[in-house]
Amino acid sequence: MRNRTVTLIDLGLDEAFDRSMAFTQATLSNVNAGYAEAVIDVNFVRTRDSPTILQALRTPSTVLHVMAHGDHSEVPAFVSSDGKTQITLDELADRMLREGAGVASPIVIADGCKTGIGLWQKALRNCLQGPVTYVGTSSSVGWHDSTVFCSAFYGALTRHKGRGVAPREQGFDAAVRASKAFITLTDRKSPFKAVELLPSRAALRAMR
């Protein structure tokens, strides 16, 4: 099986995000337990340092998974629980377009409230180096919603051996399966939605 790499970035920085992140890491460990060698490598980042965050977002991975509060009161932004850390997508795009290097992961999960709405999708396109499967949310979510979805997502992601199926296609399939599992387990509509996003024209020009 082709090895995957997951970059987990915790920008929420509170107990609830600790629980969710720990559960996700445990899920990935359980997936690895079924194989002689690890099939998922994990990069874990928990920081307030902007350069470190930027580098983590640019790290080439199969999955870029960001956990934070989603805010779009002014512009789409990842925000910590205490408000001391705030990363707006406009700021990210300005930096990435200027430096010609953006998000390189084919699967991006924005694990926060209302990160799947149009404003978020439009803003993220300026940060992309190539097409991605983007998983965001259509409503407010709690840490329990996240753990239910993500445990199913990462389990489904490894069902393919990777031959003949592009990573972003595997990500879309895994997200659809995880949403169905969410409905079965909670008797509620899944707030997690997967779409394919293409880089904006500005991103294509800057990140060739």
Spatially, the strands of the biggest sheet line up as 2-1-3-7-8-9
CATH class: Alpha Beta
Shape: globular
| Helix/strand order, N-terminal first | EHEHEEEEHEHEHHEH
What is the residue-averaged pLDDT? 89
Poorly predicted runs are none
Number of strands: 9
Which fold name corresponds to the CATH topology? Rossmann fold
* Structural class determined from secondary elements: alpha/beta
Q: Beta-sheet strand percentage? A: 15-25%
CATH architecture: 3-Layer(aba) Sandwich
* Helical stretch tally: 7
Report the helical percentage. 40-55%
Termini separation: 30 Å
Describe the biggest sheet? 6 strands, mixed
Radius of gyration: 16 Å
Tally of separate domains = 1
Model description:
With 208 residues, the protein is an alpha/beta fold. The chain has one domain (4-206): Rossmann fold (3-Layer(aba) Sandwich), CATH 3.40.50. It is 42% helix and 22% strand. 45% of the residues are buried. The model has no long low-confidence stretch (mean pLDDT 89).
Key features of this structure:
single chain; 208 residues; alpha/beta; Rossmann fold; 6-stranded mixed beta sheet; 3-stranded antiparallel beta sheet; 9 strands; 22% strand
Furnish the topology, listing elements before pairings.
Elements: E1 4-10, H1 15-32, E2 40-46, H2 50-58, E3 63-67, E4 69-71, E5 77-79, E6 86-88, H3 89-99, E7 107-111, H4 118-125, E8 132-137, H5 143-157, H6 167-186, E9 192-197, H7 201-206
Parallel strand pairs: 1-2, 1-3, 3-7, 7-8
Antiparallel strand pairs: 4-5, 5-6, 8-9
Helix pairs in contact: 1-5, 5-6
In short:
With 208 residues, the protein is α/β, with parallel strands linked by helices. Helix content is 42%, strand content 22%.
